[in-house]
Amino acid sequence: MLRRLIFGLVMMLAVVMSAAEVSFTVDYPRQVVQGNKFRITFALRNAEGTGFKAPEVGGCKLLYGPSKSSSYSQQWVNGVSSSSSSEEYTMVYRADNAGKYTVGAATVSVGGKQHSTRPFTIEVLPPDKSAQQGSSNQGRQSVQIDNAGTQTAGRPVSSKDLFVRINLSKSNVYEQEAVVCTIKLYTKYQISQFIANIQPSYNGFLIEELPVSPNLNEIEHVNGENYMVAELKKCILFPQQSGKLTITSGTYDVTVVQFEQIRTPFGIMRQPVEKQLQVKSNTSAVNILPLPEPRPASFNGAVGNFTVSTEIKPPVLKTYEAATYSYVIKGSGNIKYLKAPQIGFPSQFEVYDPQNDINAKPNGGTVSGIVRIDYTFIPQFVGKYEIPGTEFTFFNPATRKYETLTTEKYELTVAKGSGAATQSPKGGIEQKNRDILHIKTGDLNLKKAHTYVVEGVGYWLWYVMPLLLLAGVLLYYRKALKARSDMRLMRTKRANKVAQKRLRQAKQWMRSGDKGKFYAEVLTALWGYLSDKLQIPGSELNKENIAAELSRYGASEEIVAAVLEVLNNCEMAQYAPELSGNDMESIYSAAAEVMDKLENTKRKKA
């Protein structure tokens, strides 16, 4: 009886606590076009409020409100009752003046305690210039993102209504200095399908990909017009050479949605109609400045802003016991591509290859993080030794100067160890200067030989076998050299091996849930496999060439259709995941299956 009473009290307390969770939030549009109406809703949950006060919205006129509405709900789940209530205060405004406006907090009183929302910002965008000119000239109204009546079926889609643009954060940078490249889709129409046929190339750059969400959830005002915008690709580029480097244009298949008017028993209605287009992006160039001369002797290619530190563990060193010298670089820039410095270890130390541990990620317009370089060494003799300080020089684009940092100098005392060799990091046993053993004495069981060596078969085999082996090696080498001289044959042979390696990497991205890198790796594997298998140069690789070459190769129409479908699904999943019904596992399985079918397809004889 007592247990039931305690359980009932606990359940009642849980219900009371859940009902006591009060929140006061605001729902608002981040962007509004000038002249349009919009709503701001303030929601109070799990409480009844009094004395609601709304903030003023700059640049906008209040047309209606506050309009108050209330709701209440109660439910039972697994024998537990829960309830919730809400009060909403709705305000209707008209955006009158363009600009960015910070809106203060709304307040409401609950049981004598005041609750407030967080301040927020609304951006009022100017209206389309073409729309204003069209209305003043009484001509045909231009396409507008918020007016379906201007998006009529059959209307030509101009380059001003839909385009893809490559934007660079800087037009002049130094070698190895980070520059952000963003590829955006600008459209006044809704998009039902987006497929990349040819991606822009980044010759002369190292690339650090940034995650993007290619959804039409932003509005930008460009050249007097408003566009819905989606980021297709964003990456940080590190130029590897001076001069003018150009990012080539890409080609995309886009399906836009227009509307046609139809008569129904309920009046005239609009029906969506799809229209397929091909869009080509612009090219974009950046001027790469060479690093200033003369370059310091200790400069090793680091560009950015860095700090360095060192440490030695353990603090007490003994002979034949491993120790670690750690060189730590922190900062931002081309940190992922820094080279390990040369440390002046004493010759009496056995030193192994350095091990790098890189922990860096994109941060703003560059890459920031930590690089830890560990040098494992083993002292061989007792005594006092010195590891001199090391100079680390980097070029700072902000100051346009080389800056040099010097690490700490270490005075080391090595004590006598156990006298036995220590297991080395490479897995072998190292025992320096202990390889001379004492002369063996006693009965050596020596015997006098009475047989001539030349009389044995083994003696002559030592002459015959090398000659036979040499002849075999020469035949094999000639055959291999002939095969390697046929570049087309070599590309075809290695196509599946290279593709399978990339698919294994894609599977790792799939397991980690990184969709962007997964789809990029699968696409790279497919395009590279088809280029090598069908012997099509990368510059000429497109879906039409692939379909034609597959048919000439001997692939059936079913396999050709499957290959094109996998390419389309993969590109849709990468650039418009909200429109794709495919998941990573299905795309991975489909890609592996089509490559397996092509490997089992016998090539037609010419």
Major sheet summary line:
7 strands, mixed
Structural class: alpha+beta
* Number of DSSP E strands: 33
CATH architecture label name of the largest domain: Sandwich
Radius of gyration over C-alpha positions, nearest whole angstrom: 36 Å
Low-confidence stretches: 13-19, 421-434
By DSSP (H or I, 4+ residues per run), the number of helices equals 8
Shape: extended
Please tell me the total number of domains.
4
Summarize the structure.
The chain is α+β, with helices and mostly antiparallel strands and 606 residues long. Helix 4 (487-512) packs antiparallel against helix 5 (515-534). It is extended, with a radius of gyration of 36 Å.
Q: Could you outline the blueprint of secondary structure elements for this entry?
A:
Elements: H1 2-19, E1 23-27, E2 31-33, E3 37-45, E4 50-53, E5 60-77, E6 80-95, E7 99-103, E8 107-110, E9 113-116, E10 120-125, H2 129-137, E11 162-168, E12 172-174, E13 179-187, E14 190-198, E15 205-210, E16 218-222, E17 225-239, E18 243-247, E19 251-264, E20 267-280, E21 284-289, E22 299-313, E23 317-318, E24 323-333, E25 349-351, E26 355-363, E27 366-379, E28 383-387, E29 391-396, E30 401-406, E31 410-415, E32 422-423, E33 429-430, H3 457-485, H4 487-512, H5 515-534, H6 543-553, H7 557-575, H8 584-599
Parallel strand pairs: 2-10, 12-21, 22-29, 23-31
Antiparallel strand pairs: 1-3, 3-6, 4-8, 5-6, 7-10, 8-9, 11-13, 13-17, 14-19, 15-17, 16-17, 18-21, 19-20, 22-24, 24-27, 25-27, 26-27, 28-31, 29-30, 32-33
